[in-house]
Inverse folding.
């Protein structure tokens, strides 16, 4: 019988050794009175087997249609919000570009108007510096 074997309750193992040099006998007794440890171990094994069987045999829960519909509605709402944000950003960029184009057009129109005004002023100055013939008298007849 070894140390790991279960012993019947009340079994005593005696080991005697004799030392011839000192002429003494040594006796070691091991008494096994309880097998409670083996019962606890067996119980733990049974519980582990039952728990493993329950975990492995358990089915996955059925999906709830209301939860699936709610998730789909949330996804579509999120997509709509992202699309609206992208459209708003695109419209903002387009309005900025349009205002820049309008400002450039107004600046070009102002430059053209200024050039026309400068040309008109130049023509007026030239015509003012040239001598003009006096207008004909009001009561005279035209000459043929």
């Amino acid at each position: 019988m070894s140390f790991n074997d279960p012993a019947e309750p009340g079994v005593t193992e005696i080991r005697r050794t004799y030392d011839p040099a000192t002429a003494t006998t040594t006796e070691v007794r091991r008494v096994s009175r309880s097998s409670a440890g083996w019962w606890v171990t067996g119980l733990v094994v049974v519980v582990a087997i039952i728990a493993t069987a329950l975990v492995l045999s358990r089915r996955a829960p059925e999906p709830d249609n209301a939860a699936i519909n709610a998730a789909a509605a949330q996804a579509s709402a999120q997509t709509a919000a992202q699309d609206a944000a992208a459209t708003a950003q695109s419209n903002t960029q387009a309005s900025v570009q349009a205002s820049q184009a309008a400002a450039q057009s107004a600046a070009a129109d102002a430059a053209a108007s200024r050039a026309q005004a400068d040309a008109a002023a130049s023509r007026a100055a030239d015509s003012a510096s040239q001598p003009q013939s006096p207008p004909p008298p009001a009561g005279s007849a035209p000459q043929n």
Notes: The CA atoms of residues 39 and 45 lie 10 Å apart. The beta strands are 11-19, 24-32. The longest strand covers residues 11-19. Residues 11-57 form one domain.
